[in-house]
Amino acid sequence: MAINWTREAAAHLLRRAGFGGTPAEIDDLYARGLEGAVARLVDYEAIDTAAYEQALAAKTYNLANVRGLQQWFLDRMAFSPRPLEEKMTYFWNLHWTSGVAKVRGITLLHNQNKTERQYAVGRFDDLVVKISQDPAMLVWLDNALNRAGRPNENYGRELMELFCLGIGYYTENDVREVSRALTGWTVQNFRQTDNYNGATFLDNPAFHDNGVKTILGQTGNWNGYDAIRIILDAADSEGSISGRFIGTKLWSFFAYEYPPSHVVHELSEVYVASNRSIREVVRAIFLHPEFHEAHTRKTWVRSPVEYAVAAVRMTEATTDFATASNSLSGMGQVLFNPEDAKGWDWGTAWMNTGTLFARSTMVNTLSTNRGTSGTRFDPNRLLAGRDASTAEKVVDILAERFNVADVSPAIRLSWVDYVNANDDGSRGNWTNTVAGVDKKVRGLVHLMLTSPAFHLA
Amino acid sequence: MPISRRDFLLRTSGFVTVSAMVPRWAVKGARAFEESIGAPNALRTLVVLELAGGNDDLNTVVPYADALYAQMRSRIAIPAGAVLPLDGRLGLNPVMTGVKSLWDSNRVAVVENVGYPNSSLSHFAARDVWHTADPLLAQRNGWLGRWADRYIAGSGNPLACTAISQSLPRTLLADNVGVPSFVNLASYQYQTDGAHPGDRNNQIRTFLTQNGAEYEVLNSAGRLSQVGEDAISSSNILQAVGAGYVPGGAYPTGTLGAALLLVAQIINANVGARILYVTFGGFDNHATQNVDHDPLLTTVSQGIKALFDDLDAHGKSHDVLLMTWSEFGRRPQDNGSSGTDHGTAGAHFVVGEAVRPGVYGAPPNLSNLDANGNRRIENDFRAYYGTILQDWLGADAPAILGTGYPNLGFLNRGYV
Fold first, then answer.
1. Is B193's CB within 8 Å of A355's CB?
2. What CA–CA distances, in Å, run from A301 to A254, A255, A340, B71, B142?
3. For B317-340, what is each residue's pLDDT tens digit?
């Protein structure tokens, strides 16, 4: 199967590998060809972020509270010049989530996010070790309390079930033994006096269970590093178990859920051959013909975070996400505060009538913003340099911009009718004037961003 | 199901358009309910009132006749002479005149010493236990979410379960039922550009069209379209009811009063609301408790009374039951800051015509405390939930909660 590299394919790639892009960004990717475009996204260290980091620092988000931390991460996702770096960080934020309700220390959650970014496309085993020693995670899943003679199996279980293998590839005995191996990985300086922000990792030999453990059939005096190595090395007749697990999860996130088994095996082979390089697995996904099939496009239901970020990016608005905390709560996703260790469900679970209204309210606030500080949105920018002389042309310009040109003719026609409509609903004529843009372009942006075609990426 | 064909108003600022849209779910949903649980129960609504933070039930339902109570609470005890007596041993906090009047009209059951073994004293863990009805926290979904998956999924009714809340309470987290949560009617609608009110109808019409496409295969876009249609149709119904609503009760000011008024409005909209969930917080009273706690109880009591007065005035109270819960009670011994620390068992209220009035369980035993100085559990909270699931919602309680929890008998099983 050859991949038909088109501008639409580039837009699809940018929606999945990032949070959607502007017409100029899509043009840029398209011009690089398939492999060049994928390399641009995946080998993102080549993209200089100094100017962005400087701009971000100048915004002085208040990182002492969770709202400020949410703003900081949303800003990165919306405005960083490295879309995949932030998309992968977001993936890890969903994969092994931790929540402020239990962790409390905002700095700990901030640091966990930085770790996820630092190792985002690195070796999976490095990241698993870093997360297993991450103070927020040690508190969130209680390994901080896990010590010889007083085991706590919460983290040992999730390490295998949610993070590395999936149910069915370990026994309850393995849970106990892995947990014993992880004893002693704890935190120090987790104290109320500094709002729990000063905690650091401590490998405390006094808490470690020095007995012999049998993990997935291997017996020895294992410690945490050994347990992680054994878990990630686990294989059966079909090859690496963690390779299939993380390959499935990444494919589900970037392409679609329930991948065919041949795809999973191909990804697992890449994982093994590359020494568990997440970068190479992700590259393989984006270069896979199946990723570029029509049935892969527009099937991913954007999460609230992805929806908010895509709306900002694709309208070329600027914002400090000051109200995002409330908006996201109504949409069902409070960053850094998931319901439980499993985090959020994906897909249509995000959507009910209440969360839909919360989304439409958020983008209405965005599309009708006429302010000159905080959030800024300029509808004229969307038409700049284009022939917007008819309603049809306005609709097509915006539909292309928001990647919703794939709607049915009936829906496109309803947008054209909207642009032409007088207030009483009768047919009028679009005029490309300041007043016309202020009413109809803002309105059409709102409509397109609340259409099913935009909730899907 | 009272919903039949009717017209829905498409309200706009400035003028009104009539739309002949009949929501798919309003008819289809009614049939699904009746088939799954029988018509009588299908009309019933359960209002869940969460008192977040750990309500001090000892100063709510006061064991005024117990000398230990006054002794252990030298700083914050409610004087025996001031309580509103329920019987010779227990009395309500004097600010709770509203609940007392409902008690006097035989509409209140008090369930004492509710909790679970080895209580967690952490808000975080204890709330999750109560939300999921699982002390082991192995259940992801909420207890009413599991009920909804069993009895509501497939009804297509977007308002079958609704939370009056900024975000979804875990009690209602379900696999196959979407539960909207919103804090007021203004936020449960398709908002448009305030600078161009005249364009609002055009926008709403277009929004409906873009969600009205027919899909041969129900893919993601098709499902999202249904949600969009349901959102507008259910919003139209609620906005119409809300706009002309005359409350029949004196709701307290503040968020609880507003939320309970919204509960009454949704009930009066006849949209097949089965579960309405309200959270009211502020009960974590570690210091100078009475200054904070008495006003909270005043609001709760006034709110419950107003809700039932309002439902009475609209002829709706027959089919509504209200229950309270809180993640734990508080320690019998007050602390050095004239407050109370985290405890275990608590007393909860069940209000409605279907209750068999009275106190269920013994008064708190303050002489037999655990190693932390906390009360021992008498009624497992799953027995509390199960009685409501079984006798109010007609549900298979053991399938949702597990077996071994007795029916506490506070509901009239012959109630129709």
1. no
2. 11, 11, 21, 59, 24
3. 999 999 999 999 999 999 988 999
